[in-house]
Design goal:
- This protein is α+β, with helices and mostly antiparallel strands and about 120 residues long.
- Among the domains are: about 15-45; about 75-115.
- The protein contains three helices and three strands, in the order αααβββ.
- Strands 1-2-3 form a three-stranded antiparallel β-sheet, with no helix packed on it.
- A hairpin with a 5-residue loop joins strand 1 and strand 2.
- The termini are far apart.
């Protein structure tokens, strides 16, 4: 006799694996997977937070133009430093210093009252 035959004869208490058992386990597995997918799809569809645009083509053109402008700005190799300088009477001055790739400076200041 083989080992599997002798184990069955000993009566170890484990039920035999039949075609019906395999089918029920397979059915239960797909029921759990299908149920989880249904719950997740329902949650995804009911909580749609995407951005809707009138014309995705126009939005794409705007994005491409902004990207080209940003690339052109990066090619200038500007370095910008900004700081707030407190003044008398609670006023604040914003000092911005921008330098190009040759180190030339352009300076702008703005008074922000009460900030």
């Amino acid at each position: 006799m083989t080992d599997s035959m002798s184990n069955r004869d000993k009566g170890d208490g484990a039920p035999p694996v039949t075609g019906r058992t395999v089918f029920l386990c397979l059915l239960a597995f797909f029921a759990v997977v299908g149920g989880a997918n249904a719950i997740l799809v329902r949650a995804a569809v009911s909580t749609f937070g995407g951005l809707e645009t009138e014309s995705s083509y126009q939005a794409g053109l705007v994005f491409a133009r902004e990207e080209a402008e940003a690339r052109a700005q990066d090619e200038r190799h500007w370095q910008v430093a900004a700081r707030f300088a407190p003044l008398r009477d609670g006023e604040t001055r914003l000092q911005v210093e921008a330098r190009d790739d040759l180190g030339r400076s352009a300076r702008a200041e703005s008074d922000l009252a009460g900030r």
